[in-house]
Design brief:
The chain is α/β, with parallel strands linked by helices. Helices cover 32% and strands 22% of the residues. α7 (186-203) links the parallel β7 (174-178) and β8 (206-211).
Length: 323
């Protein structure tokens, strides 16, 4: 049984301009001790899927269909008191903006100790020591001194490391990380990735890593789910996706990585932009940007053999395209 199992999830936002189908039939799973990378451009629905799992979708949005099972238990639209018992204890989320986690008017030690006491019976000295040690694990120097500081006294990168430390405090079974290393320099980014990988391997934690950075995916994730316009367009092991992506959008993402371009050639790019979130096309949502488009792409595309493209088996080999 998967630790997290999402089936046909639909999260919509009801606005004056129409219904925004931010997540429109998404399915994926994460096992214990595994890393799933969810990749795609801004607006593809990656973060909204994560927020749906956490029970953090507010009006005008709501989950209108599908299933979210955590450790075999249905948690989609779980009552708030029950969700609060899971959130921060067994499921944690690391946000791209650390100030979504940190309270600007409370000292770091207060926020961290309260996170522990919300879910665990531990003496204050023991909780304080655990918080200090966790700050040290995420690379914050002089953690005893930093524990007594306020968020505004930290740099942006250090605030993010505090937010990551808070997510790790209660040793959750599942962590959803929404581009948490975007604001960090490459040295600290590597340190955090190593820490998360160690956590997954040693504690059997399941990790959903939301990102647009394919260089991170290549050396970090076990599996990849590629999202576009509210849908999963391809799912595969990381090695398989990097070596031979089957959906034209996945090919565009990987082909646009600078290291895949010929020396001296113009950087590859995906033309155009994603369709509007309201009144999306009934056929393939990537069709207007796809160089392989035919009349068959006007029909709705189902996810077959883990790819949402009826021409997936007819496309030329990826190496030939890059040549």
């Amino acid at each position: 049984m998967s630790l997290l199992q999402i089936d046909d999830l639909q999260t919509h936002f009801f606005t004056s301009g129409g219904v925004v189908k931010a997540v429109d039939g998404v399915s994926y799973s994460v096992d214990r001790g595994k890393v799933l990378a969810v990749v795609g451009e801004s607006g593809s629905g990656k973060s909204v899927t994560g927020l749906s799992v956490m029970g953090l979708i507010d009006a005008p949005g709501r989950i209108v269909g599908g299933s979210i099972k955590f450790d075999g238990r249905e948690i989609a639209n779980l009552p708030s008191p029950e969700m609060r018992k899971l959130r921060g204890a067994r499921i944690s989320m690391i946000f791209q903006d650390p100030m979504m986690t940190l309270n600007p008017v409370l000292r770091v030690d207060t926020q961290m100790v309260e996170t522990i006491h919300a879910h665990r019976d531990m003496s204050k000295p023991d909780a304080w020591a655990l918080c200090r040690d966790t700050l040290g694990r995420v690379g914050i120097p002089s953690p005893d001194e930093r524990m007594r500081a306020y968020p505004h006294q930290f740099s942006g990168g250090m605030r993010q490391r505090v937010a990551i430390a808070i997510a790790l405090l209660n040793k959750p079974d599942l962590i959803i990380a929404d581009e948490p290393t975007t604001a960090l320099d490459v040295t600290i980014q590597a340190q955090i990735l190593h820490l998360m990988q160690k956590l997954v391997e040693e504690d059997g934690t399941g990790l959903v890593w939301i990102t647009h950075d394919l260089s991170v995916v290549a050396g970090f994730a076990d599996d990849v789910a590629v999202m576009y316009a509210g849908e999963i367009v391809e799912q595969a092991t990381t090695d398989a996706l990097i070596a031979e992506p089957r959906h034209p959008y996945s090919r565009g993402l990987i082909g646009s990585v600078p290291s895949r371009n010929r020396r001296g050639a113009r950087l590859a790019q995906i033309p155009g932009g994603a369709p509007p979130a309201v009144n999306r096309p009934k056929g393939c949502r990537f069709a207007t940007r796809c160089s392989y488009r035919t009349a068959g792409c006007d029909a709705p595309q189902e996810l077959r053999n883990h790819v949402r493209c009826w021409r997936a088996d007819d496309l030329p080999a990826f190496d030939e395209v890059l040549a």
